[in-house]
Design goal:
two-stranded antiparallel sheet; 8 strands; 10 helices; alpha/beta
């Protein structure tokens, strides 16, 4: 491998639907009656599914770490019942990148790895990123997840570009020394990336492919 493109999942590849968000919190509401849990991912101590699950469990009187696997499985079961929404152009983008010799494709997502895999598989995108898929397992912020992904890949940071939709993704790329392309279809969220300091931002995957090719040629 001479270079790598690493994707955040929600935003660049899949649209996180309201129903999928509700599925994440449903096990706690159904089992412990915990209504009113925040749906604002940034309101939790660390923006990482594993960390958020543990933060919620730690707030349940009498709950123990042993409930984690059963809560996770209930979430995964609910998720499998829901439709997925791939981002327009994501499959064509991945297909074009997969044809580039020496280019590795992977993910660095704060989703549970199994949850992201399930959703990507049903969207027809999983095979493109399966070999270098890195999820929330192990905890930590996005910079830590990206770091683990890069360690597995073994590609130099200067030959790696990370595609993300959140200022924490941009911060992760800065910490790890990779290139960064901000992607979001929402103009307001694109502006938020620019305000955070991201210089390369797009909302169309035809443009994403052009930007990646320019990065690889530099």
């Amino acid at each position: 491998m001479r270079a790598a493109v690493i994707f955040d999942v929600d935003g660049p590849l899949l649209d996180l639907t309201d129903a999928e968000t509700e599925a994440f919190f449903a096990p706690f509401e159904e089992t412990y009656g915990m209504s009113g849990l925040s749906r604002d991912w940034d309101s939790y101590r660390i923006r990482n599914d594993e960390e958020i699950f543990r933060e919620i469990i730690n707030g349940i009187p009498g709950a123990r770490e042993a409930v984690f696997p059963q809560m996770l499985q209930r979430y995964l079961d609910k998720l499998c019942e829901l439709p997925v929404m791939p981002i327009p152009g994501a499959r064509d983008l991945l297909s074009a990148l997969a044809a580039i010799d020496g280019l590795a494709l992977g993910t660095a997502t704060a989703n549970f790895g199994a949850a992201a895999q399930s959703r990507l598989r049903r969207a027809g995108l999983w095979d493109f990123v399966a070999e270098w898929h890195c999820g929330a397992e192990g905890g930590g912020a996005k910079r830590d997840i990206l770091g683990r992904a890069m360690t597995r890949l073994g590609v130099a940071p200067g030959r790696t570009v990370f595609i993300g939709d959140n200022p924490t993704d941009f911060e992760a790329a800065q910490v790890q020394g990779t290139g960064f392309i901000g992607f979001d279809r929402d103009p307001a969220r694109r502006q938020r990336l620019r305000d955070a300091g991201a210089q390369t931002v797009t909302g169309d995957h035809t443009e994403t492919l052009r930007l990646i090719r320019a990065f690889l040629a530099s």
